[in-house]
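Structure in, sequence out. Go:
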């Protein structure tokens, strides 16, 4: 099997997610940041293309206002950026919407993107879903991403449950999910990460919950 031609996509590792109203709650912010930095180290050692993305809104916006502290990359990311990285801003969930990232990746013959950064529940899943239409395989690092607690008119969900649920969803169709350790090993050996599919995940899910009071229409 041909080795994946990967690129690392660093999604919105900005101060808003550490100090603002959108603070990441799970995994712990400093732990996910440490794993993002480990992924960068591995990518640079293997000469993988790297894209660093910032969400950006106009001046005066409550979050990600251009030039604001909320908009700024975390200092640990900012000091790692080099001229060889692709640096872009966006105002949609997907890193491909309104940017030239897809063409930049195509020019480098990338066929697999590895997503790290924030948030699992918005820009990460949006990017993974958009990759499918572009013919790109996607990977997401479970311990180098994260989610906040959410509550609205539809209900409420704690960050850990939200994060874990979305990882199961991603693995079922949109992206291969793995921890940073497993990904680094795969990168060093030139191997693809394993991914399930929707049918297999549904069959396994049915078996896992067979007989549960919470399962209906069994």
């Amino acid at each position: 099997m041909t080795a994946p031609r990967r690129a690392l996509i660093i999604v919105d590792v900005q101060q808003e997610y550490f100090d603002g109203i959108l603070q990441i709650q799970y995994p712990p912010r400093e732990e996910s940041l440490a794993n993002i930095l480990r992924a960068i180290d591995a990518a640079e050692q293997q000469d993988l293309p790297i894209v660093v993305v910032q969400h950006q809104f106009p001046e005066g916006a409550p979050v990600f206002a251009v030039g604001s502290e909320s908009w700024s990359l975390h200092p640990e990311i900012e000091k790692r950026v080099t001229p060889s990285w692709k640096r872009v801003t966006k105002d949609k969930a997907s890193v491909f919407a309104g940017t030239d990232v897809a063409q930049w990746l195509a020019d480098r013959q990338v066929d697999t993107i590895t997503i790290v950064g924030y948030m699992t529940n918005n820009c990460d899943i949006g990017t993974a879903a958009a990759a499918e239409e572009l013919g790109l395989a996607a990977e997401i690092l479970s311990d180098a991403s994260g989610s906040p607690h959410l509550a609205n008119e539809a209900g409420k969900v704690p960050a850990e449950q939200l994060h874990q649920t979305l990882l199961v969803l991603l693995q079922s169709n949109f992206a291969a999910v793995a921890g940073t350790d497993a990904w680094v090993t795969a990168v060093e050996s030139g191997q693809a990460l394993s991914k399930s599919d929707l049918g297999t995940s549904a069959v396994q899910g049915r078996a896992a919950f067979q007989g549960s009071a919470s399962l209906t229409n069994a």
